[in-house]
Amino acid sequence: MVGNDWVNSYLEAILAAEPKFGDSKSSLMLRERGHFNPSRYFVEEVITGFDETDLHRSWVQAAATRSPQDRNTRLENLCWRIWNLARQKKQIEGKNAKRVAKRNLLREKALKEVSADMSEDFSEGEKADVPGEIPTLSDGKTKGRMSRVSSVDVFENWFAQHKEKKLYIVLISLHGLIRGENMELGRDSDTGGQVKYVVELARALASMPGVYRVDLLTRQVTAPGVDSSYSEPTEMLNPLDTDNTEQEHGESSGAYIVRIPFGPKDKYVQKELLWPHIPEFVDRALERIMKTSKALDEEIGEGGQVWPVSIHGHYADAGDSAALLSGALNVPMVFTGHSLGRDKLEQLLKQGRPKEEINSNYKIMRRIEAEELCLDASEIVITSTRQEIEEQWNLYDGFDPVLERKLRARMKRGVSCLGRFMPRMVVIPPGMEFHHIVPHDVDGDGEGGRDGEDPQSPDPPIWSEIMRFFSNPRKPMILALARPDPKKNLVTLVKAFGECRPLRELANLTLIMGNRNDIDELSTTNASVLLSILKLIDKYDLYGQVAMPKHHKQSDVPEIYRLAAKTKGVFINPAFIEPFGLTLIEAGAHGLPTVATINGGPVDIHRVLDNGLLVDPHDQQAISDALLKLVSDKQLWTRCRQNGLKNIHLFSWPEHCKTYLARIASCKQRHPKWQRVEFENSDSDSPSDSLRDIHDISLNLKLSLDGEKSVDTNLDAEDITSERKAKLEKAISTMSQKKISTEKIDSKMPTLKRRKHIFVISVDCSTTSDLLSVVKTVIDVAGQSGSTGFILSTSMTISETHAALLSGGLKPQDFDAVICNSGSELYFTASPSEDKTVLPYTHDPDYHSHIEFRWGGENLRKTLIRWISSVEDKKKMKQGEVLSEDEASSTNFCLSFKVKDPSSIPPMKELRKLMRIQALRCNVVYCQNGARLNVIPVLASRSQALRYLLVRWGIDLSNMVVFVGDSGDTDYEGLLGGVHKTVILKGIANDLRELHGNRSYPMEDVTPLNSPNITEAEECGRDAIKTALEKLGINLLKA
Fold it and tell me: What is the pTM of this model?
């Protein structure tokens, strides 16, 4: 078995220690002679897919034991452990099968329900595009190639219509160390290919026509052992085009790395530990983007803020941040996973690793939830290959290829999708820079040189380093470039080469396997691969035919490709699975034909370049046959070389960016367009006199209706029908029935903007009396200075909140704003009206248009009602309903349900999964001690409402102090992090911890416990709260 030759070695030692099992010498060649060795077969089958580190360590100790008796005892123990692994493997396979079957059953059920809702068959003639393809605009000549070829026409058409457009694009990549020059790739596991990708993408996008500025947001790192360049707030990336772009656009044009400080200071944090600090990054990034938008408006002069055309998150941590920023700014989101958590989880589970251990090491469940949120919020998900869509994204609740095609077909026919949405999966392989590559001109004898190259110039040093291995260096070179990892399948390649005599006679083999000083210094896995290859070289007597240089520089890699092309060689990537295959593109750019695995990205690359052959990596004979065919057939070799050179430009960064921008152009631009709000003149120095009138404040219906006049080219845009407009108009009468004032109402907004401190009371209590007690205490602590404002944040409706305040002897005017229905409603308080039936609150005119993205509305309600029925059937309760719709508490953007017995309903994660499987995007919140279930828009929440105050009204988040209890509603975790201060009132809401009992990931994974912005008050008392505020640097006496 590949990568497990040490297993063979200790098995042979077992056979030598126990003669009755067979002669040890004869056992060495049993498999090679065609005989079946059941013992060896058993060991190999058992070990496959398991982490062998501990077992290998035991074998090393056994092999080093001098005493034969002790040695035999240890070897016997190893045999028992191998048997135990076999049992574990069968158990794991059974669990995996059950998990897959359960997931498939849920999806089948969801598809049936969706089909029933839509009540239309998906006929053959109505099929939409395969996920990841762009509708072909040409005459069919590009058939069979990757979708982005046709997207050039889309980009050209778009650019012709938007010549004067100056786009602002935001990219986010949080982990690792990012800088524009001298990137430290490989410094650690977080600083790898993604760093290079995002920097080159930013630089390439900034060079495209129509793009004015690109900001790449990352973490600012100031830590011992880390270069000071990573602490610079801003770094301008050198443009690809050296023309005078600065003179054309001004100082702010181009691409920039913007480093945002968040998380522990003076410490480099690995990506698994960044999760608790994501909210802080979001808040600081939000402030930075808004400042940049205003500055760009002043520079470009378009008469309004220049909002980002998209926010693009890279990897799960940045995707989670991009989703929150997208919701706060109401701009389209794009996501690239790079690698996915569910796929990694599946692989680790197959190795027999306990799920608890996996989550502890990798915080994998938090990562998966972030990726699910990205599916909820993204307009576009960019992948490198179709394999990533079909085999990796297909593992997620929020994406199903069958349902995606069904929805796509309905949208192309102009049929309503009934509130269901899927992100657009687009295959856009990473770009490359080819301007520095000049392919070798190869003559008929295999000799050649580059155009303009001096024939007398010395060969690159790496050539002689490789050539010294060969007895006949003029033979074609078979080149493999990969680290010595079992997954790269290099051992099978060497076996294929060694066992094919014609191939050995025609070609040499070069293996570039990283850098090493001593094999013993390598990891166990890498060392075992290298040792296996060395044994095979000796076994097949490949001396003089295989090169394995110990060292090479990154700058040597192009010269290695050149050498292989000069000898009319072949490049091979025989990996078992290759997510993308960048080396295949590099080889093609140098005119080198390729042989590649049929599993993963190489299939897409081959479809475009058509410069080689695909093989099954498990089929040793197929590998040797493909290599022999390319090496021996000179006409085939030449044709593959020419095809590669002709088509390689399709993988350039300009081509990547054309497809990228064409996709962004198809998104519905939903930038904030605030209603005009006029305030009456007042004395700005007097907070008590600063109440002003707001004119034309209602439910933002005008914006919602008028905003649909523009042409919408986004396939995922919300369906606007007469039914939808009727509901919006109905909201006006609903508002009037509730007697909430909407015209000429004194508003606290100007006062709120000038508060020195804003206390946000977000304490979730089981009883109204407990909540009122907390509210009175916090107000009492603040005193009557007028410099402190108050916002009440709750899951109750506005009418329930108003009644609660009056019952406790409090006035609505004690608060500047009220956040209701778990963050789906935002009101500002106003002066009492002479009409006592009118509630003294003003609804924010723009809030609903800001949070309505992908809101399912009535169709979501129907699905929830059906779910309620299924829950009742499962519980078989005869004493009334488990849940019931609470129409009195429901609003246009909050569906409320009463819960009879919280212990009888599934946890929040199960309901969230149900919604995602059905492509209904929403935020589910269990509140009021589990007695109520609020379902609100996917990007709405109490924490997002605070960010809206920054975006819409310029309220400084750092001036806010959020008061919470020991626990709270299921949206509790979102209130803890950020740039605002947080006071946790100990002893309050302890009884709500049960709501968080069945979480996908522990609260500790997302709570910034050591943050200087979070403190605890020992009790909900005046002195304890004052002490807590002083710890946060807030002295109310000086205020």
Answer: 0.80
